[in-house]
Amino acid sequence: MRDISEIKVLRKRSGLTQIQLAKAADVSQSLIAKVESQKIDPTYTKAKKIFDALETLLEKKALKARDIMNKKVIPLSPNDTLKEAIAKIKKYGISRLPVVDKQPIGLVSEATILEAIKQKKGMKDKIKEIMEDAPPTVSLTTTVEVITNLLKYFGLILVSDKGRIRGVITKTDMILKGFK
Predict the structure, then answer these.
(1) Can you tell me the mean pLDDT for 71-83?
(2) Distance, CA of 59 to chain centre
(3) Is 158 in contact with 165 (CB distance < 8 Å)?
(4) How far apart (Å, rounded) are the C-alpha atoms in residues 69 and 77?
(5) DSSP state letters, 107-144
(6) What pLDDT shows up at residue 180?
(7) Structural contact between residues 151 and 157, judged by C-beta atoms closer than 8 angstroms
(8) CA 150 to CA 137: how far, in whole Å?
(9) Would you state the CATH architecture of domain 6-61?
(10) For 141, which of 13, 63, 69, 165 is 20 to 30 Å away at the CA?
């Protein structure tokens, strides 16, 4: 259980009035005022209700994948050629492309292409021969914390809803849209 003194800080951080928090927690506004001014110690049950309400309200306000994602997904097919991948990277000014065959099956990045060049692959070679493993996929409601942690290890995250890719998130998307 968190410390009771955090209630006021969390309430203010979430932009709530005492009345709004009291309503959400199903307690009286005077109880919230007394707890915040440290005039009383609430029962465990009342404190839990208040913290649960704060957590729920804070979670609703938190940015999710749907708020950060880029809805323009430019996929490759496993049968596309290296030449087609390079053309898409150039045309759209992006560095990573998911490889999709109904579901995500791989990824082609600038690094993948450089490795293919190093291995003397031809422009007509198929993407399925050079692609990396598929990037992680998250739901529309995945939190910023999870996304940030994934971006430490992956350059691209796919966002899906009901089995369909709805968007992508890169480090750039996070930097541009991840701050309120």
Answers:
(1) 95
(2) 13
(3) yes
(4) 21
(5) EEEHHHHHHHHHTT--TTSBGGGT-BPPPPEEETT-BH
(6) 53
(7) yes
(8) 10
(9) Orthogonal Bundle (1.10)
(10) 13
